[in-house]
Amino acid sequence: MPRIAYFGPQGTFTEQAARALADPREHELLPLDTIPAVVAAVRSGEVAAGCVPVENSVEGAVPATMDALALGEPVVAVAEHVLPVHFSVLVRPGTEAAQIQTVASHPHGLAQVRGWLEANLPKATAIAVNSTAGAARAVHAGEYDAAVSAPVAVEHYPLHELATGVADVADAVTRFLLVTRPGALPAPTGADRTSLVAVAVNRTGALSGLLHELALREINLTRLEARPTKDRFGEYRFFLDVEGHLAEQRIADALAALHRRCLEVRFLGSYPRTDGTQTQVAAPTRDEDFAAATDWVAAVRRGERA
Ligand SMILES: O=C(O)C(=O)Cc1ccccc1
Fold first, then answer.
1. Partners of 265 in the β-ladder
2. Binding site membership of 133 for ligand 1 (Cβ less than 6 Å)
3. Half-sphere exposure of 18 (CA within 13 A, CB side)
4. Distances, alpha carbon 188 to alpha carbons 35, 38, 176, 288, in Å
5. What gap in Å lies between CA 276 and CA 258, rounded to an integer?
6. What Rg, from alpha-carbon coordinates, does the chain have?
7. Pairwise CA distance, residues 100 & 107, whole Å
8. What is the reported pTM?
9. Band of the pLDDT at 47, cuts 50, 70, 90?
10. Which of 91, 136, 249, 305 is a plausible cystine mate for 149, CB 3.0–4.6 Å?
11. Could you give the ipTM of this predicted complex?
12. Where is this site: Essential for prephenate dehydratase activity (predicted)?
């Protein structure tokens, strides 16, 4: 049975996303403790796919995922899933709020309940750990007093819910990706997203030039993030998500232009959007507009038209 690794241990938000993306009759789920371990298992072929969190509507990007996707052997996203996130605060049975000195969670978890902690556990020290479920596991082991976890974590660890439905921002969501080794792309659906990473040359207007290539082809950007390249201070890797699929000519044409312009471009996948928002493509950037223009140039080159 093909295996799908996810950022675990059991009881993470990523497990919920992996369950939504997997077919229970076809896939076995494998929890791994870190995001790089999930991506490494995909690269090595140990698993068929891996599920990792990529961005949150409150706290932004998940840096570990960006680095794991941008560096090393290529992997590509074939699907995404968006999950609403609210938290449960879990403690060992018998723990009173007044006894809580340490509260552990994933950094994104802590960031999303900062106000609640301030109001309800003002004396507790927040401790960042690998994952929300890792925090629950550590509370069970007696390492910390409370964990800010996904609501499902209580089914995996014998803990008590001190509070549930905790979130400073009520409608917070996290987006997850299912990544595989490069292969055939998912078929275009008309509601797709394409992700890529580009390193622009270090020159005036380089980023603007890169974005201009998208604007010229009427490609809508849904996300732009920068991460240091890590080699040279002041050089950045730009992570771009755009509406559309590489099978569309305007996207292929834009990626080819970025390949000419940038020091480095990496394709991170074309996959259906969870929200199903259809991309509106109008003249002059429909496939037929590109085909007609290419035909005309070819005919001119052959001396048949002018
Ligand atoms: O630690 C987890 O449960 C994760 O899956 C990462 C995460 C952490 C906080 C909010 C959303 C996802």
1. 198
2. yes
3. 28
4. 28, 26, 19, 16
5. 27
6. 22
7. 19
8. 0.95
9. very high
10. 136
11. 0.96
12. 174
Share of the chain above pLDDT 90, in %: 96
How far does Cα 44 stand from its chain's mean position? 20
- How many C-beta atoms surround the C-beta of residue 58 within 10 A? 16
Output the six-digit token pair for 234: 């002041």
Q: Which atom of ligand 1 is nearest to the CA of 153?
A: 3
Domains recognised in the chain with CATH numbers: 87-166 (3.40.190.10), 184-306 (3.30.70.260)
Taking residue 104's Cβ as centre, other Cβ atoms within 10 Å add up to 28
Query: What's the 51 CA to ligand 1 centre distance in angstroms?
Result: 12
pLDDT at 234 > cutoff 90:
no
**String of DSSP letters for 102-146:** EEEE-HHHHHHSHHHHHHH-TTPEEEE-S-HHHHHHHHHTTSSSE
Whether ligand 1 lies within 6 angstroms of the CB of 7 is answered as yes
d(CA 20, CA 6): 12
